[in-house]
Amino acid sequence: MGWDDKDKGSPWQSGGDKGPADLDAIMRDFQRKIAGLFGGSRGPGRGQDGAKPPGSGLFGAAAVLAIGVWAATGFYMVDAAERGIVLRFGQYTATTQPGLRWHMPWPIETVEKVNASMTERWAYQGSMLTRDENIVIVDLIVQYRRADPYSYLFNLRDPVDTLQDVTASAIREIVGKNYLDFILTEGRADVAAQTQELLQNTLDTYGTGITVYEVNLQEANFPREVEGSVQDAIKAREDRERRILEAESYSNDILPRARGAAARQLQDADAYRSRAIADAEGEADRFVQILAEYQKAPNVTRERLYLETLESILANSTKVLIDTEGGNNLLYLPLDQLTQRRGSIVTDAPPPPMPLSNNVSVRDARERDLRNHAMSPKTNLTLIVAAAAVFLLGMSVFTVDEREHALKLRFGEIVRADYEPGLHFKIPFVNTVTKYQNRILTFEDAQEKFLTGEKKNLIVDYFVTWRITDPADYYRSVRGDELLAVERLSAIIKEGIKAAISRRTVQEVVSAERSEFMNQMLLDARERSPELGIEVVDVRVKRIDLSEEVSDSVYSRMREERQRTAAQLRAEGEEESEMIQADADRQRTVILAEAYRDAERTRGQGDARAAEIYANAYTQDPDFYSFYRSMSAYRASIGGDQDVLVLQPDSDFFKFLRSEFGTATVAE
Questions:
Q1: I need a surface site. Which of 158, 204, 404, 615 has the fewest CB within 10 A?
Q2: Cα 476 to Cα 471: distance, rounded to the nearest angstrom
Q3: DSSP assignment, residue 408?
Q4: How does pLDDT run across 230-285, given as a tens digit for each residue?
Q5: What does the alpha-carbon distance between residue 372 and residue 55 come to, in Å, rounded to a whole number?
Q6: 171, 151 contact by CB (below 8 A)
Q7: First to last CA, the chain
């Protein structure tokens, strides 16, 4: 039993009533002894004549200097981004702000600094299952700060490692609740926000003192095994868009052209109608005027029109006069030649430092010898007694940190297990003190395979947060061995996981009932862990993956889905392209047909009106009309540049050429 446990015979108790010792009186007595040792005014170290022993002044100065140096070690600097946590014999006393500070030097007080303002980043990447049992690769960045230095130091042993474990669990839980296409497209921001919320809530439950400021989903993509099919599906989507754009371009090209051609047809038809009517009116008016003159002198007018027609015809055409009288029966004319003739037209390295000398000067050795000889046997005995007292005092005290449980044992028997942080005492060589973590601890087990209710193997990777609640039970159950405690706790957790997974399907474990599944594991672990003197804070699944064989099947299915999507996209592109082009062709055909109909109708109106005009004019003298139209037809059809006319000299046109006096002679 320790001295502070009211053991009898404690040197800290008074002799008569055995009451509690006065620690201040003990310290004052010890200080008087030390002062006498280093040359105090009434100490036992003075000589008979009251003079100080040789060297006592030197020891006093050294003591003052040592105390000054010891006090100076209490100064410390807290940076602008930091906070200082002051511990007095392991007990928390204060949180200091930035600046130059002082604390009672070691071993009384210590200071631990925590950067509470700097934003740090942690990257995580992994493959995980989605709600539709697909596999997605997620890459995210977590930005966080140590916002609460006290909680960061005293609540968890490894807060940053716990942050990483919780991040892996949170992102996998959120991904497991969503479908693959949602995660890859419009759901990226929602997934990041939900992950941040779940991550922060879990960290707050553990009291980590960490604040997560942002979770960025850098990338969400398909696994490498299906990348080829994914790229083909992306290309198919682009092909679909390209086919639709090409069809729209085709439609935008031919429809305006068709509308333009239709407008031209209508305009041409309207012009044709106007021209036909105008031509008919002009020709009819001309015929009527000529008819009036013809009726006055029919023969002269007929002869004039006939000669004008021949003049017009013969003026532009090639003429060949043939006199067949007295000639051969066969005549060859090179018409092709006649036609062709008319138609031809360095720095240096610094020197090495000089070695320091290890020799001791003669003067230093002499002074050391003088000091050694100056010490009397009584002084040496006092020093030995003082050193023994200091050693005994050091063996009698111990400190309990804010982050520790302390268990006092007396020859293996548990004496006390409820120590508060601070300075405590024990009996040397009788009592021993064992310390355990008072913070939340974390362990993660190696991944194992578990069989689901549908007989599929799942690879599960989990982590457990726990703390020691009863150091005595903890010592009795596992002898204070953390590895043994973790081994026994791991067996309990595995048994709970096996039971929970065996009752569920893959989809239920991954997505729909993931939270219920983890809560059930936590309840099972809490029911069985108190016997170990520990409390299970949380059980969280980090990773749920399919076995390699099943993963290959999933990859094959994902490839088939992407290939099916690619084929569907291309087919849809062809379908929409054909529909757009067919509709454009239909509209073009309708536009041109309607334009042709309206144009022909307009031309018919012009022809009908022209025929009416001609009929009204030409019925006045049909015989003259026949002669008049014949002459017009001759002029229109004969007399071109390429025409060749073969004439005989005895034709009616040359009747005046045969007359001696220029009188007409009718050919026989």
A1: 615
A2: 9
A3: E
A4: 788 888 889 989 999 999 999 999 999 999 999 998 999 999 999 989 988 888 88
A5: 9
A6: no
A7: 173
Evaluate whether 405 touches 468 at the Cβ level (below 8 Å): yes
Return the minimum-mean-pLDDT range out of 10-14, 375-379, 382-386, 475-479: 10-14
- Give the Cα separation of 396 and 3 in Å (integer): 8
Amino acid identity at 382: T
**Using alpha carbons only, how large is the chain's radius of gyration in Å?**
59
Single-letter amino acid, residue 98: P
Residues 273, 185: Cα–Cα separation, whole Å:
63
What backbone phi and psi angles, to 5 degrees, belong to 221?
Answer: -145, 170
Q: What are phi and psi of 540, to 5 degrees?
A: -130, 140
What is the rounded CA–CA span in Å between residue 176 and residue 172? 6
* Angle, vertex CA 502, rays to CA 500 and CA 503, nearest 5: 70
Paired sense of beta strands 457-468 and 448-451, if any: antiparallel
Distances, alpha carbon 513 to alpha carbons 101, 165, 508, in Å: 53, 20, 5
pLDDT at 197: 93
Q: Are 469 and 533 in contact (CB under 8 A)?
A: yes
Instruction: Identify the bridge partners of residue 92 per DSSP, sorted by sequence position.
Output: 87
* 3-state SS, residue 448: strand
Strands 91-96 and 413-416: unpaired
Residue pointed to by tokens 């997934």 = 191
Find out whether 545 and 465 touch, Cβ atoms under 8 Å: no
Residue pair 130/181 in contact by the 8 Å Cβ criterion: no
* Cα–Cα distance measured from residue 658 to residue 567, given in angstroms and rounded to the nearest whole number: 93
What integer pLDDT is reported at residue 338 of this predicted model? 56
Instruction: Report d(CA 376, CA 53) in Å as an integer.
Output: 8
Q: How far apart, in whole angstroms, are the C-alpha atoms of residue 658 and residue 667?
A: 9
User: What local confidence, expressed as pLDDT, does residue 462 receive?
Assistant: 85
Q: Look at residue 389 in the predicted model and tell me its pLDDT.
A: 81
| pLDDT winner (highest mean) among 34-43, 279-288, 595-604 | 595-604
CB 431 within 8 A of CB 137: no
Read off the pLDDT band of 577 (50, 70, 90): very high
Planar angle of CA 488, 492, 497, nearest 5 degrees: 140
- Contact between 589 and 259 (Cβ < 8 Å): no
Interatomic CA distance for residues 92 and 421, integer angstroms: 8
Beta bridge partners of residue 102, listed in sequence order: 75
Half-sphere exposure of 399 (CA within 13 A, CB side): 16
Helix (H, G, I), strand (E, B) or coil at 470: coil
Q: Are 301 and 290 in contact (CB under 8 A)?
A: yes
Q: Establish whether the linkage from the previous residue to 223 is cis, with ω within 30° of 0.
A: no
Written as one string, the DSSP assignment of 583-599 is HHHHHHHHHHHHHHHHH
pTM, rounded to two decimals: 0.61
**H or E stretch covering 534:** strand 534-546
Is a pLDDT exceeding 70 seen at residue 15?
no
Distance CA 198, CA 208 (A): 14
644-647/318-321 β-pairing: parallel
Q: For residue 617, is pLDDT > 80? A: yes
Backbone region of residue 617 per phi and psi (left: phi > 0; alpha: psi in -120 to 50; beta: other values)? alpha
